[in-house]
Amino acid sequence: MTMSSIQFDYSTLSTSISRSELASIVGDRIVDSNYDISEEASEGGSDDSSEIYVHPSPPDKFKLVYLTFGLLGIGTLLPWNFFITANDYWMYKFRDTLNTSCINSHHNKSDLQAAFTSYIAVSNNVPYVLFLIICTIFNTRLSKFFRIVAPLITLFILFSLVTAFVEINTDDWQMGFFALMIVIVIVVGITSAVLQAGVAGIVSLLPGKYMHVMVLGQSFAGILASVAQSLSLLGNCDSIKSALVYFFTADSVILLALFSYTVIQKSEFFKYHTHSLKDAAVLKDSTDANQRVQVSVKYVLKLIWPYALAITLDFWVTLGIFPGLAVLAVPEAHGHIWNGKLYLPLTCFFLFNLSDFCGRAVGGWVPMPHSKRMHLLALCALRFLMFPLIMLCNIHPRYHLPVLLSSDLYYISFMTLLGLTNGYFVAVAMVVGIKSVSPQIQEKAGVILSAFLGAGLMLGALTSIICIQII
Fold first, then answer.
1. What are phi and psi of 431, to 5 degrees?
2. Which of 41, 212, 285, 454 matches a 20 to 30 Å C-alpha distance to 113?
3. Any idea where this protein resides (predicted)?
4. pLDDT tens digits, 71-96
5. Peptide bond into 323 cis (omega under 30)
6. What is the chain's mean pLDDT, rounded?
């Protein structure tokens, strides 16, 4: 029996087909079909072990679910982006109070000023990776409340605490404040890991474009943070007022994401893709379904390892350079607002995030086919050439290496290339990688890829510290 011999009447709610017939004709091809399968009790009282119903997915009304996952993508990375974008705020908080020249000097930073960005990168990403691994193992045992709602609530509480400290004078206990921020960053990393794994797992159950919009949302979080930073500088806001804008914005977005996710729980489209028994319907019986769904991490990793490794290499390079190393760049000339206080916000943060967003958009619209997955892996490995290129730019303070690429054009070009390649490769790896496996294991594949993404973040953060010592 062939697929073409089955007639689907989309004018009715469902069409009957025997389980044995479906089991003999469906396989991985069902992934690309325009309909979904769910198992329901027969209205005529027939045995549901021998008959199932096939019907199309409900519509995503007003694209509410689509927009919510874009917002959740923003929420997963906005806290981190505002932490690193509030660079002037941290420079003020950790200035040498006995030497005021360290506040705004590019070449004469205090030890805490020079090291803070790299330290928070390590403090965030190491626990982030560890808990992503834990979530990879136990993700399906956790309720959707614990995976999404609880982390959003925790992030809101943490950022409310960070916001409160903006107006508190910490000059007399800088090391204590430094330690407190590191602890908060660690907890943020743990919470973000649970949220990232939860969002990636659930969105993997939806059509591919929902994963794409989530990936775009993560990049848009960086753009939002960069725009907020640039506007505050153009408005001559001091570092304290700017930080208040950053952290209040983060609080608002987290609350909005929490509200939106609560609303879509009632969406028929969301319920259909996350709660239906369509996975069981494409198998011969419920016993086989349990065996197929409860596959090991090792089995799934064998199927998606090129994408997993590509994501790790991609973010290893990106986090090794941005932001820890990239924020140490100084302009070739001085005396103008564009090569003064707006230099880093525009050439480092905004340019990278905009390029990253564009790369992710192209990656979703023009993806690299599954047959080219090894090419993707090789291109991600080539990105390691970005390390010496950036390190030879006008980076300060430096201790050993000379400046060979002093022109601002070199730095701007390299940051643009870093963002474009990062965005394109991660979009391809996440969208194509997840949809390259059968529907029954896509959720687990999404969580595994998120764990390898976190591994790249951790390796990049550690590499950033080493690179700063080398230059």
1. -70, -55
2. 454
3. Membrane
4. 999 988 887 788 877 877 888 888 87
5. yes
6. 80
Residue found under tokens 């309720």: 143
Whether the Cβ atoms of residue 323 and residue 386 lie closer than 8 Å to each other: no
Contacts of 337 (CB under 8 A, 6+ apart): none
Mean pLDDT is highest, among 28-32, 94-98, 137-141, 315-319, for 315-319
Amino acid 412: pLDDT: 96
Cα separation, 158 vs 125, in Å, equals 17
Token readout for 106 is 């590019």
Q: Exposed/middle/buried for 377, CB within 10 Å: 0-12, 13-18, 19+?
A: buried
